[in-house]
Amino acid sequence: MSTYLRNNAWNNQGTFDNSDLLWYAKAVGALQSRALDDESSWWFFAAMHGEYIEESTFPGWGTIPGPPVVPVAPVPSASVQGKFWNQCQHQSWYFVPWHRGYLIALEGHLRKAVIDLGGPDDWALPYWNYLGGDGQYKIPPAFTQKNLPDGAANPLYVNARFGPKGDRNIYIEIPPISGDCQKNTLYTGSNSQTTRPGYGGPKSGFSHGGNVSGNLESNPHNKVHVQVGGQANDIWGLMSDPGIAALDPIFYLHHANIDRMWAAWNALGNSNPTDPNWLKGPTASGDRKFMMPMVDGTTWNFTPAEVDSLSKLDYTYEGLDTESEPLLADALTKRFTKLGINTDNLTIDAAMDKGETSELIGANEKALHLQSDGVKANVKLSKQPLKTVRNSLKSASISSIPDHIYLQIENVKGNIDANMLSVSVNDTYVDHVSLFGLRNASKADGHHGGEGLTFILNITDVFDDLHINDALDINELDVKIVPDNDIAASHDITIGRVSIYREQQGS
Ligand SMILES: [Cu+2]
Predict the structure, then answer these.
(1) Domains of the chain by range and CATH?
(2) Per the record, where are the segments of Gly residues compositional bias (predicted)?
């Protein structure tokens, strides 16, 4: 039974005429007035996502240009920090359930603050549906004005928020940001690093970042983070980096939207994992627990199984049932039409993701340094796997779906997240990837030992085009990677390897 309704932040033009936003602002102010070591403070919650309190240079918390003025003391005990801080799950199949529990906990503290301030007792966190059309790609105006209607400072306004062009005009670009992930049919792909991560992310233990993001996490999640945060004059916006992101009040409206998309994806009939290692969380393998300080003073040690359906929880979303059903067979019908294959008896079942086995077709030879004008990787292709791809295309039918082809950009490392990379193959644009989480993932003492981020892009279309033009008997491909924002000399970014895989479509 849902008691609370999370509403669209753009109601009443996204201004303070929307009472959900006015009460949010006041409650954020109340939580910000509490001390860093208070488990119900704004700062404590931000540190639960991730923190750079001890760093003395930017993005150290003490160096962030306010507002807000971010405290670095008093810090809680080491055991409290070890229990609660630096907990956010990224590049992991725990990404959505962990953030769901995190929002529930914070929303409880905010609601109590709303009620204490004389507000409605059914207040709930609004969501920012940037992909919802009608100008919603812009940040709701309540977040960019310096004052509340009564003249007091607006706690939703933050200084370090620069936008996609670094000029404080805050919006997201569509494309490259899209809701295409909602068409996925698998939550998690293969366990292997060399295949797709699926909608919800790759199998993992407790993962504070590093490796491959799930498709919802890649786009829109990671892209929205770096476009809202942006960068200017060698510093970057709070939203651009997980160790400062949850200091920005827009963070939670972005995550409410990601949470809403997950619920909508389930409402379309897609299933969450039933693997006990997912249901029980990282505790199942003896790893760190998910712990939230709740408004009643208790600690909630939660598992994904407790939060994997809104029917188990006390809230729902306005507009959840208005999502239109993406036609599963659409992409395959389009592909087959292009390849000249009859689609008369194509079923939804045939369009379901079944890719299981993958094989390397080729990779470039050495690590690359990425500079402002980009880099080109020359990927040599092996004859035998390429022949298998050609044969799968030649013999394609609705009962024998040709191979899918994936491009991997592996072990990307660096010390600034606020960027997106534009990727093209043989001069054909493929997609953008977001570097959100790069800095954490590159630290040698991090959870994944500093192996960086890896990106997996579907380039099946490029190979289909080569096949149609009878040009698939090739020895190499050129992969061009160009950053959207310039890379300063102090922000070296490296790419470990660029590789191409085929994935056989089983039946
Ligand atoms: Cu996030």
Answers:
(1) 4-157+177-225+246-322 (1.10.1280.10), 328-503 (2.60.120)
(2) 198-212
